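Worked problem 6 (solution included).
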Amino acid sequence: MPESEIQSQPPQETDEPSVSFQFLAATFLKVGLTAWGGFMALVAIVQGILVERRCLLTAEEMMDGISLGQLLPGPMAVNVVSFAGYRLRGGLGALVSATMVLLPSFFLVIGLTWVWQQYGEIPQIKSAMAGFPPAIAAIIISAVITMGRKTLKGSPEKIIAVLCAGLLLTVGGFYLTISVIAGAAVLGLAIWYRGSRPRQQTPDSSEPYDRQRPAMLKWIAVSLLLMLFLIVFLFFQKHPLIVANPLLHLFTLFSGMSLMLFGGGFVFIPMIQGIVVQDLAWVTADEFTTALAIGQITPGPILVSATVIGFLQQGFPGGFVATVGIFLPPSLLMIMASQALESIKGSPAVQSALRGVRAAITGLILAAAVTVIQTAEPHWATALIFAASLTALLRYQLDVIWIIPSAGLLGLALL
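Solution. The predicted structure is:
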């Protein structure tokens, strides 16, 4: 068979896929162990492995996943992981990837919560935590630099990125985040769609749109089902039949909240606090603050704080159910959106909109780095940790697995 014919075959039609489930499990378990700092740090690690080193995904595909993660509800970090797993090995690949990336955080959170319950506050952990924010900010900045080189190809993209970062830093908030993404998509259409429209006039252009209909209908159906679940959560989560079963109540509560988490966990911390502290009185304000702290000092997304709340309510089963509830519905939504995105890949309108969204994402990542560094303790050691981490990442390409523990040790010794 000629070489050109071999190269033209899609990966899923080969007898031996280039990416095995064992590889996905091992890779995302490693990511879960090293992704300190939540979404932006996790994206940097995933991009380094799958895009830069293994060349299994392109930079554009990675940005598509980030764009969907920003647009869809739920924890953005796990959304992006689900997207990457789906692109590499389909729905089961998404399940394996998301599960493995969450396992380290889940067990670490359970363990730390148990220790906190037994022995109270641990001063050593607090000292080490002081070294994390500057290192996390350095990881995010390195991701901005890497992504910016590939996505900010012209002046319009750079202007969009700077404007989005500035708006998020000066105004902020849930509605602004959604408006920034939507506005960037509109700008992308206005700037780049005109030059792409002639491609739609080719004789074969209707075929991809005919093929996309089943995927689009499936995506719409799943979206409607998830929105129906959200309505059930809003109106029936206090129903006696649900309240009488604590585990069902936990799952319903966190599943419903996960479908409202546009913009990530930090944006919706007040909403979660209002429900579990003020409304249901499941935890005290101090316990909720401790849950957030544990979520931040462990690798993975901050929304593993839901695991702490579930564990405090119903022990290990409660922690497990809360974790599934906060991560599963958005992951299902992400898989369906990934199918829809793949089916309309050839649409000039979609590509133009995504070009604007990708630029906006770069700006949002930059704003996140600034926000993280603002939480660091004002100290000369903070600047030292930030500079050393950024140098190690950009100049020496040191793995993140060494950055965060070293920053923790420096924080323990100097702060």
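Discussion: Residues 1-16, 198-209 have pLDDT under 50 and may be disordered.
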